[in-house]
Design brief:
single chain, alpha+beta, five-stranded antiparallel β-sheet, 15 helices, globular
Length: 559
């Protein structure tokens, strides 16, 4: 996450000479685990040249959603960049458009909607530049200066101290912009040595593997998995080394949720349910990648680690009385704040079915997370909740929405996942209609942008207008591993997509209601190659073996 733009910019400017000195004097070899070492110059993609090749959604029931989709791409194309000379970046990338730095988890979430235009635009390649800047011990900074390719200066451990947080654990009602340099206390384990290259502020939200898996499942690009295996495994090992507390859970600071009321309770080495679940997710996905790559021993190793961590999360962070997951203070007590962090347990397959059901109940509870625009980052009945948003004191954000939605699907709550996705899509579209743009975050209680929120942010906010439109409104879910496209077709007007891209295919699919038949749809398929299409419509499922060329068929629901 990020603190205020003005402060970050000032710190960046003040640190210019330190950054240059660090670049000159740095002796370690960066990016040694990633094969790509240099950028090969190529023209940046331009919307006016590529628009006729991009996926073109069809959704007659809501033309505003289509307008918002194209606005999202318009903003995205403004933020494609080539590496700056001497930066050491190795690939074109999409920028978060937040400040002059690139951000780890922003880039991961931006890649998720850019996947739908792969390989026409840089999306997943944005992650290459982080792998190219990986330290020898596996650490990767979440924020790197775009012009120089050097880690953002405040997050560099110039002091060569044991792990500490540069900006600490401020109270949510404090200024929080002063330098704190607060040390992490390890309870029940020996402090790791040597000291980390980075501060705790730089080591949050490790979602690279999730982004890589999302890319693989849509595009089928398994050659990339081999390329990223070494960077991912060394990054995972570095986080294990430096962030694991003696209780087996993981520490975090302000940087996971900037101004959340929970932060002050985590001071000094408290453990977060989000970072702990993200590490469980990381291990599960490394196990899956290992299986794909034929590394059976590693698959078992990471799977075991994920299961072990899940057991600790459930033992220590689940409150049986309150039926919710809570962060832990350094002393091991439950933090008395309900936040969206608990829902990472669904994405990581940590929760049991009964625990998942309890979390779902809170998503439907208007007193906590069941707000008009779900899902707020802070429960509405908590101290500090801001109905207008207040950043991480209630705002609705695309990355956490996506985490909740994907987590719900893990446990079979597909209808609720779709409901939340469509509410978010509609919120983004209606605020676009009012303001002419897309925003960094949104109010949980009103049809407006969050307060505060940065405008023209695509940015991760492109997930709603692009990914949610294609996957949840139109209903496409690709499974490149089986060369299959699932289509959850809803009744209504004409819908589909021209030039939908998955598993190397470019296909056009359109469903039109038959005149006078509300329970019958005519489906037209145009494809450049064979694939399996599975359509579900009003309780009926039909399989199609699509081939190259054009074909038509019909699906009829039972009366």
């Amino acid at each position: 996450m990020r603190f205020a733009l003005a402060i970050a910019t000032v710190l960046c400017v003040q640190g210019v000479f330190l950054l240059q000195a660090a670049q000159v004097n740095q002796k370690e070899v960066l990016g040694q685990y990633y094969a790509k070492k240099a950028y090969k110059s190529a023209p940046l993609p331009k919307l006016e040249e590529l628009k006729d090749e991009l996926p073109a959604p069809i959704y007659d029931d809501n033309p505003l959603w289509i307008k918002t989709y194209w606005k999202a791409w318009e903003l995205a194309f403004r933020n494609f960049h080539e590496p700056a000379p001497q930066s050491g970046f190795v690939s074109q990338f999409i920028d978060a458009a937040f400040n002059q730095n690139i951000f780890l988890w922003d880039s991961c979430f931006m890649s998720m909607f850019c996947n739908f235009a792969y390989p026409l635009v840089p999306g997943i390649s944005s992650l290459d530049n982080f792998y190219a800047k990986q330290h020898e011990d596996g650490e990767i900074s979440r924020e790197i200066v775009r012009a120089t390719g050097v880690d953002f200066d405040p997050w560099i451990n110039h002091e060569d101290s044991p792990l500490f947080s540069r900006w600490g654990w401020p109270r949510f009602d404090e200024n929080g912009m002063q330098t704190r340099n607060s040390p992490v206390t390890y309870e029940g384990r020996t402090p790791p040595a040597p000291n980390p290259k980075l501060t705790l502020d730089a080591l949050d939200n490790p979602v690279f593997a999730w982004a890589e898996m999302e890319h693989y499942l849509l595009t089928g690009d398994n050659s990339r998995l081999q390329e990223v295996w070494e960077p991912l495994t060394h990054y995972y090992a570095a986080l294990q080394k430096y962030l694991e507390q003696g209780n087996g859970l993981y520490v975090t600071d302000w940087a996971s949720m900037d101004n959340s009321p929970r932060n002050m309770y985590l001071k000094g080495g408290g453990t977060g349910v989000d970072i702990s679940s993200q590490m469980a997710l990381f291990a599960r996905q490394l196990a899956t990648l290992a299986q794909i790559l034929g590394k059976s021993d590693e698959a078992r190793q990471y799977s075991t680690q994920a299961d072990d961590l899940a057991r600790i999360i459930n033992k220590r962070m689940w409150d049986e009385k309150r039926k919710f997951y809570f962060d832990l203070t350094l002393e091991g007590k439950h933090v008395p704040v309900m936040t969206i962090a608990a829902y990472w347990t669904l994405l990581a397959n940590v929760a049991s079915p009964a625990q998942a059901a309890a979390l779902v109940a809170e998503l439907k509870n208007p007193s906590t997370f069941g707000r008009p625009n779900p899902v707020p980052t802070l429960a509405a009945n908590q101290e500090g909740y801001v109905p207008a948003g207040g950043y991480w004191r209630g705002s609705v954000w695309a990355p956490t929405e996506t985490m909740v939605i994907r987590g719900l699907e893990n446990y079979g709550y597909d209808d609720l996942a779709r409901e939340i996705a469509l509410k978010h899509l509609d919120l983004v579209a209606k605020v676009f209609e009012k303001t002419g743009t897309i925003w960094e975050n949104y109010s949980p209680d009103a049809t407006q942008q969050g307060m505060p929120a940065k405008a023209d942010l695509v940015g991760w906010s492109g997930i709603g207008p692009i990914m949610y439109l294609l996957e949840y409104a139109i209903g496409f879910k690709a499974d490149a591993t089986h060369n299959r496209l699932d289509w959850q077709l809803q009744p209504g007007g004409r819908r589909g997509c021209e030039r939908f891209r998955f598993n190397g295919h470019v296909v056009s699919l359109v469903a039109e209601p038959q005149p006078g038949q509300s329970r019958a749809e005519r489906i037209t398929i145009q494809s450049d190659g064979p694939f399996e299409l599975r359509v579900r419509f009003l309780g009926v499922e039909k399989q199609f073996s699509a081939s190259a060329g054009k074909q038509e068929s019909e699906i009829v629901a039972e009366q």
